[in-house]
Structures
1.
Amino acid sequence: MPDIDPAAAERHRAKMANRKRVQDEEVASKTREKGLLIVHTGPGKGKSTAAFGLALRTLGRGGSVGVVQFIKGAWETGERTALETFGDRVSWHTMGEGFTWETQDLSRDVAAAERAWSRAEELMADPRFGLVILDELNIALRYDYLDTATVVGALAGRREGLHVVVTGRNARPAMIEAADLVTEMALVKHHFAAGVKAQPGIEF
Amino acid sequence: MPDIDPAAAERHRAKMANRKRVQDEEVASKTREKGLLIVHTGPGKGKSTAAFGLALRTLGRGGSVGVVQFIKGAWETGERTALETFGDRVSWHTMGEGFTWETQDLSRDVAAAERAWSRAEELMADPRFGLVILDELNIALRYDYLDTATVVGALAGRREGLHVVVTGRNARPAMIEAADLVTEMALVKHHFAAGVKAQPGIEF
């Protein structure tokens, strides 16, 4: 351990004591419980991954989780396999037909998005689920596969206590407006730029 | 389903076919496999949660995961409980003594960080682990509880094939420099501002 100057230690203690007071006051001022609409957007990595991390958190607390994948059916197989360990406490629905540039068929994409949205509505109505993840819903809205006003209206009117996580780049302004918590994942640096390929356990 | 104009459908098809060509070329150009140093930083939510989502991905692929929590020992209990489902494929070490403003004791914080770093070195050396999560390590570096050059040097010299995720705000420039993938989580909107409190399954 490095030598610590007693004066520095005391400054640290005083600073942290003050920080703790501010923190405690802040925590005490938050009193409402509320099912949250959480949005993970932006061009960076981690939008879906953080949603599945929240699933883990809910499962660890004894809750159940519904997942609807709107677009990228071929992806996230690692998470799906791992979450299957939790049996019927995870209800996973891969409704998308792969990336939009794979299908190249607009009416097929629209039909798939509509089926996915119906499934999402079922899961959101089912009181068994404390958390519903609508993975890549933002993409379906961005391409107008679904009507934004209808979808955001249904999310805003979700049953009390239900947490919903919506992922995908380019979240619509109405979605941001309706959300309680919005995180934008920004890409600072990416290994693909150095020629490194997608690897199991990391990208899927 | 809305009526789709055939010309619009064809424009969509042509655009997506072109997108797929670009995508396929890009994927073909990535040929290297490499254990990645991944950094989740920034003031937004989801840094640790996305790291635990990656743990899920690794577990779903049959791998094992090591976790060292450098700072916030009292947090992330939901994830920990859920990951315990995977038995000895998850090795979880809570080494921090809570938030820095809880301990108010610099030498205790430094000692805790040093113990955590020793544990991190053990896990990184153990070939059983495909992924090691160093949760809130950036905080320990920011407060100079650990020497940045020593830590970043050890991370850069990690064994081949090992993925490491480092989380926490205010990542040091040397950490960003050494990383393969850096995501900055930006806070767009937070429900605490609306007086909503930390809730199980979401914040912990």
2.
Amino acid sequence: MTYLIGIDGGGTSCRAAVADRDGRILGRAKSGAANILSDPDTALQNIIEGARAAFVEAGLDPAGITKCFAVLGLAGHNVGDAVHYVRRSLPFAEAHIESDGLIALQGALGDKDGAVAILGTGTIYIERQGQNVRYIGGWGFTIGDLGSGARIGHALLQETLLVHDGIHAPSPLTSSVLAEFHNDPREIVEFARLAKPGDFGRFAPRVFEHAERGDVIATLLLATAVWSIDEVLDRLVAQGTQKVCLLGGLAPLYLRWIAKRHQSRLTEPEADALTGAVALALARYGVDRSSAHER
Amino acid sequence: MTYLIGIDGGGTSCRAAVADRDGRILGRAKSGAANILSDPDTALQNIIEGARAAFVEAGLDPAGITKCFAVLGLAGHNVGDAVHYVRRSLPFAEAHIESDGLIALQGALGDKDGAVAILGTGTIYIERQGQNVRYIGGWGFTIGDLGSGARIGHALLQETLLVHDGIHAPSPLTSSVLAEFHNDPREIVEFARLAKPGDFGRFAPRVFEHAERGDVIATLLLATAVWSIDEVLDRLVAQGTQKVCLLGGLAPLYLRWIAKRHQSRLTEPEADALTGAVALALARYGVDRSSAHER
């Protein structure tokens, strides 16, 4: 008997699930990072290790993974070389690689139409209407990812320098940042010079916390970030989107700040991205493909 | 007889002047780049070559530079190691290294109080009241330099992606950018990933041009940039500054956009940065130091 495998591979960890040909999940497991862009060989190793561990968890012989059909959701799926290399090297009978965003959308919405706003260190929006899937944003930190944790943290450090220079009035938020850098703007500049998006992003929760307390600068920074999200939601709604799930690490923090006009469209995700990967595997490789598509 | 030397060393070229002990400029010359941070040895070589060429231009024996007193205005003057290395290696009898900004201020304002706003690829403000000199901004592209050409160009590329994604309405400005990148947002992202501040800055004049014609996006981007400058001028005025010179490549473009409340304080520079370096050399090493200070 062959099984379905779902993989949710991210930069921090890789999660795997094994399901029967009716899509019932039998076992789940977690392994190390699966970033196919920065380290494809480690990613491959962790994908395989995760799949084997899910088999063990389900009480199955892990050697069976070679007979499986798999759907993998991977960041960087749109970068051709990495994907070809990984797909060629996977041990599964058949494998289909999708974006990490698409399996998240599938998990969150099931087979319904709608959109997900993935709000984490970066931001990306995915909209599905029937068979049409459309990506918005997701262009990365340098000139994109508005509303992301990285951009919020970046804006906070910039604002802190303006306060230091006496251009803007201080607030408890900027004072806490200045204190952290020993009141030395050069330390902030040096930090920012070397910072990766995740390093900026670690300041984002602090902005939300201070905004809750009415900190003027936190409120302004957050309003700018929220505006950039509301603008995309406006666009999605204009295109016919009725349901939006907020996903990603900042989703619970953003929830109450999203504009009133969008609040009625926000829905809780039905399931997680790993479940979405299994659902896509079921649709593609399930025992009765046509019925799976119609669910 | 010994002479005074002024040096204006920048990332593109190095300018040098020789003057007599009364500060009368006898010869000027130009040599290659003098970036003491990225390439101190080439900088040293171009500083010496410039000084010798100024002597030749003045009809003097270039061997005489070793008896001179020099003031050098150099970008990166606040980075200790580079400055110590360059100062130790200079062939002059005495040498004093200042910021490129301070010699620009000295040239622009002479010995009067006031401030300069240096608006180019980056932005920095320098204010002088009597013997007190204060720097504002100049923290570099990553989290500073608001209103700079680099930040304007960066904002334009970001806006162009928002237009591509259908979040904002297009304008002739963003259409011209999209066309330049073959209507492919990935080309813009890739450009931005590799771009140095100067690469972003090359888009800034286009924003000014389109704003002159009433382009909506250009007007908005420019308003944001101008606001960041007006805010600093507000701060300078609150501290007592009465005169402001706009310097740098974007100064003539910005002039008409600066807020009305500041227009009466804007003045033309008296002289250039090289003249400022000579003036500082005169004040420091001139034939009658006390009278030079009192001028």
3.
Amino acid sequence: MAKSRYEYVKNFEQDLTTLPQTWIVIRVDGQAFTKFCETHHLEKPNDLRCLNTMNKAAQMTCLKFTDIVLAYGQSDEYSFVISPNSSFFNRRQQKIISTVVSYFTSCFVVNWPNDIPLQYPPTFDCRLVCYPSFEILHDYLRWRQADCHINNLYNTTFWALVKGGLTEREAHNTLKGTTSAVKNQILFERSINYNNEPEIYKKGTVIVKPYLEFLHEDIFHRNFFMTYNILV
Amino acid sequence: MAKSRYEYVKNFEQDLTTLPQTWIVIRVDGQAFTKFCETHHLEKPNDLRCLNTMNKAAQMTCLKFTDIVLAYGQSDEYSFVISPNSSFFNRRQQKIISTVVSYFTSCFVVNWPNDIPLQYPPTFDCRLVCYPSFEILHDYLRWRQADCHINNLYNTTFWALVKGGLTEREAHNTLKGTTSAVKNQILFERSINYNNEPEIYKKGTVIVKPYLEFLHEDIFHRNFFMTYNILV
Amino acid sequence: MAKSRYEYVKNFEQDLTTLPQTWIVIRVDGQAFTKFCETHHLEKPNDLRCLNTMNKAAQMTCLKFTDIVLAYGQSDEYSFVISPNSSFFNRRQQKIISTVVSYFTSCFVVNWPNDIPLQYPPTFDCRLVCYPSFEILHDYLRWRQADCHINNLYNTTFWALVKGGLTEREAHNTLKGTTSAVKNQILFERSINYNNEPEIYKKGTVIVKPYLEFLHEDIFHRNFFMTYNILV
Amino acid sequence: MAKSRYEYVKNFEQDLTTLPQTWIVIRVDGQAFTKFCETHHLEKPNDLRCLNTMNKAAQMTCLKFTDIVLAYGQSDEYSFVISPNSSFFNRRQQKIISTVVSYFTSCFVVNWPNDIPLQYPPTFDCRLVCYPSFEILHDYLRWRQADCHINNLYNTTFWALVKGGLTEREAHNTLKGTTSAVKNQILFERSINYNNEPEIYKKGTVIVKPYLEFLHEDIFHRNFFMTYNILV
């Protein structure tokens, strides 16, 4: 059984390493989660049980992989930040991506609430991106948090309209091209003050090492990082 | 909330595509499964419940991703083969790796037997390799199946010795440098005919599209592929 | 002078290797050669002195790098083919690309005809592509030779029109959207039988190891490779 | 002549782009220049005519490619630095490497002194490395300049010994493991004050945009960059 005769096939492996001294961001992202939410009858526009499961999975991921210094999550996505001088899995891309997304998925399934029977196994994809400076990493985090805000304001207004009697198509048409101010006004007319919406929906969730608690704060401002004595 | 101001950070994404017209192999591999087996008191040298969970997860993975034409699994690993002309996720490496390993992990956890409570979330890593010809792909599969045989013969003999009263250290020393013939003889003296061991342990498991049944056969011989009218 | 203190910067080097057992094609391509031809008053549509310099540079390149098995050139470009089992510079992409294009450029300048004084240093760029099978490599070569034919027929007709009194703009407009048959007819009316044009212009130039002579033949047909007992 | 039938082969091209907002260093390096120097009977330990040709080629390279902000050369190598926000050739690696090394080689040959007939075409290889911060780029430049000093001190001493009557083997053995101080002492005993050696030999050559003059200065100190109002 000449196993060694076949081992030359290992030479075809080409695992890239990420550039040293750059911030590594790993973002896991739910695949087809619109359908997942419908199938499992999750609440609109936000389902706290699902967000809590995401957060719990992210917290466990932060705990397991000590090279992660910060995580930011919103909706069905979570970004994990690895510090520039880390040699996490020797910075091998395939190893990092696959291990993080596998563990995160595993934690998500294990922590899924018992009272919502899983209809099928959920899937996440994952990408790895390098950022050469803290400023650009910071812009990345702002980008994801701006995305959270924009989507949440839209979705909150959209579902308020639908609960108020509009069809989904009518709600879409009503909101098309509207500014934030108009959306806030629509909500206000329905006795919803957007500012009073839960912070977790408006800001998403930040996990900062070594605290591992869930923060729902602006990471738009540099003093967030100074407060936590990290990164800068 | 100028989201677009931050969107330049997307320019840092660099997802490689795999070379067209090459066989793509994606291998998921249990991380620290020696410890996982111990923690969950799995049977030695093979635990059929764990293998069945691996097989079930692989079968579901084959079913979900129609570009997979064949899968081969043994121990805590599974290789999925994608045909050369596939445009699975536009052949983007990060997307392919992350999605497959995430779904596989999800299926593994969901199908884990209820009577063995999970102590912690299992993790798999994943690598993607391209093979430019069927011959080399074939050698890859032979390599994994040879690995299955070699490890299984060793482990079967090792645990027979331990069950016979040797310490693990003594068993290791007894087997060090021994040939297959010697191992077969040791087993024979303990009334074990290795040839009669279950095929699933000796050969691993092959899943061929579109049948999706579990085969425990030699893929060393070219007519295996001819029988299934595939690949060649 | 602690040189070693700085040597960590070597860790940032990331030279990719090309996939083993694939055909490597390295194509050098003249940069801004339209301007180069004008500045040096080269003949239209083909300048034999320039083509000879290209061929001589390619021949020397084939001679220096023994891993090259075939070269094909036309106009201001040359493709060099390296066999799949070669370990040329350990298949490192940057090393292969830079060395080949540097040597080719060097040979081009050294062999440039003395009677056409160089006005400035010519430049070539270079790309490396892997082809997983002989069939695809063959299509690559056919692609470049088809490109040679199409451009040469166009240029021959174009300059015949210009020499016949049309402005370049008029000649372009006359040829826009015409078939090969029409172009042949235009040439025929000006007493030019395209079939009698020199083979080097119509077919380009092939160099096959170990002969190193210049062939101006079709490489569209598989028996070309059989004749030279190579590649297949 | 269905050219389009073959154009699918373009899909196999995989030109990587370098990470945005990182310093790009392109280093050209003479191949087998020990032999090149011997064949052309160049002077030991430094041949000013050859260094001048290197410098002239680098100066022309800086002039042609406006994205280059600084170049540093010594011995048979030259490093070109491209600023982080450059979109030089869309940051495509193959394009950048091949074009720069081709033009540099072309300039080297064109500027080679007429009174030293070229025996064969010289070749340079080239590598591209990204540095995520100015500090690391700075360490890269210090590394190359430290290399210049160490090699020049060694070579100056080595050839002083050889000119003093030792064989090359004896000179090597004499210098093995010696400190800088010892080498300075050996030179001093032969009436050579290393400090008085030409700066171009001891420091190499820096070219800073937009001045394009040749500087032979320390780039070890940050105020070098401040003086030239560049980079930082």
4.
Amino acid sequence: MITSARGQCSKDQKVAIGVDVGGTKILVGYVTEDGHVLESRQYSMDRTSQLSALRSIDEAIDHFLQLFGDGPPAEGIGIGLVGHIDPEAGVWKHAINIPIHEPIHLSEKMEKRYGLPVTLDNDVRCATRAELLYGAGQEFKHFIYLNLGTGISMGIVSDGRLVRGAANYAGELGHMSVNTVGPRCSCGRIGCMETMASGGGMILRAMDLLSSYPQSTLNQYASRLQTDRIFIEALQGDLLAARIRNEALGALQISLTNVVNLLNPEAIIVGGGVSRDKSIVDDLEAHLRTTALPPAANALVCIEQSKLEVGRVGLVGAASLVWGGGINETHR
Amino acid sequence: MITSARGQCSKDQKVAIGVDVGGTKILVGYVTEDGHVLESRQYSMDRTSQLSALRSIDEAIDHFLQLFGDGPPAEGIGIGLVGHIDPEAGVWKHAINIPIHEPIHLSEKMEKRYGLPVTLDNDVRCATRAELLYGAGQEFKHFIYLNLGTGISMGIVSDGRLVRGAANYAGELGHMSVNTVGPRCSCGRIGCMETMASGGGMILRAMDLLSSYPQSTLNQYASRLQTDRIFIEALQGDLLAARIRNEALGALQISLTNVVNLLNPEAIIVGGGVSRDKSIVDDLEAHLRTTALPPAANALVCIEQSKLEVGRVGLVGAASLVWGGGINETHR
């Protein structure tokens, strides 16, 4: 998938290689310092084991360089990864969707292999960096990047800087408990957001409830059920789909009001697959305006879908790690 | 209440006047740049009206200067106030405990009256500044200052900087909803922390339930009931007191696990009247270690009572506003 002519890159424009490593696919691309993707290609991830996953990443970059290695010389490689990352040490510490059970010094390994500086960060923090540099950050100093996808997480920007926390682990909104009588989460707690409002949680919840709704049109999808389908059927009046959608929306309403009261952002920028249902974003905005504390609600300019391309935001943010700022300025 | 000999102040030591304005009392003091209180005096607040409240502040500072005005020349006045403050504009925007319904340019008014630079901030942010400069901040870059008093709020420090939010209103933990079947809060939502775990909330809850617990020893205190008494009677086995304490602890457990997952702090520093019950702080630490997500729990070094004097932390933080940093470095 070559996405734009290489000719768009002027001779003076600096270029980095970005790598966005997700649970099922790896996106590799040439990205300019101002956030334009010159070339990109998608590869599949073999997550059978830690070894196979690391081999998939190597092979993806190798193949990309074979195709485009005669392109502009890259200043470095920036890699966004699911899971827990130590950007300073260049270590991929742990992941669940991809079986990373042993911490690996990925940047050192990659620097040896490719002879370029390599920087790592968590994928949601990469997407938040992309918003900060090329999207919402051009308007807002204080914002939340909310990723509604298979899981739920967020990036926090305060005064133009990423809030990373002590171990680069801030932003686990998916594990905010909002319902003392809700379902039990894989983390052990009751009523976590993720069990009700993530893509994965909604599908599990629908599966659990299918037998109680024998008339539901969702029965015909069974194991092939996707969240898009739940939203469509909810609008068509399917009772189970409407219940799943309403539970998701309810959990988002409570948790985001909590977040607005706690962090007082100017904007909430919503990305990830579930955000494509604009009615969810609009419902949330209307709810927050009336339920957040007045000074926090008044300061909230908007809650809106990301203006960056949903499939590329992680890639662009990963590449931008090469231009620095992400570690030195915001993480000690 | 003169608290220490003026002789402790060396000639080179810079001094500021700190003013800590609470719902019932005003504390005024001379504080050195390294956070030592040289003199302090407590005055009462007349909160009959906005006018009477402002007059109380003037009279407190006037009287303090009459007593100690021949002391070291102060570099400025720093004032910590309940409610919503705009530190850049020097405006006290709104408060509920003290009836501030019309925004007032307090710093301009005070600068004219006293001929000194005047800086304002919210009281919990002042206490968090004191921790940052003179307490927990000496050990930790990422911490939460949790104020458990009549209300509940918190200050957030990320990478050594205060997280203020867009309108200097971040930190409203008291209005994190954690219980979908809990009591209705004055903010309109269900199950806010403050209804269950604040001093004010616990007392209201006890009053509501007294008639269902005719045997409870709390009946003899009625309108004079204090949270200290609830904790003492809970330990003695009183069923109502134990219920109130357990509900408070449960709400704190859920909300602080949420906060640890969201912000990944190294430490939670607990101040305010309710924090004097060390068993609450110890229970919370044990709970967080097992319920927060492992990377967040592992990064949490401690949850502990503030080492700064509970009655002075706001005063010291208010005075420290005079030395800057609070606005220019962390708020735009």
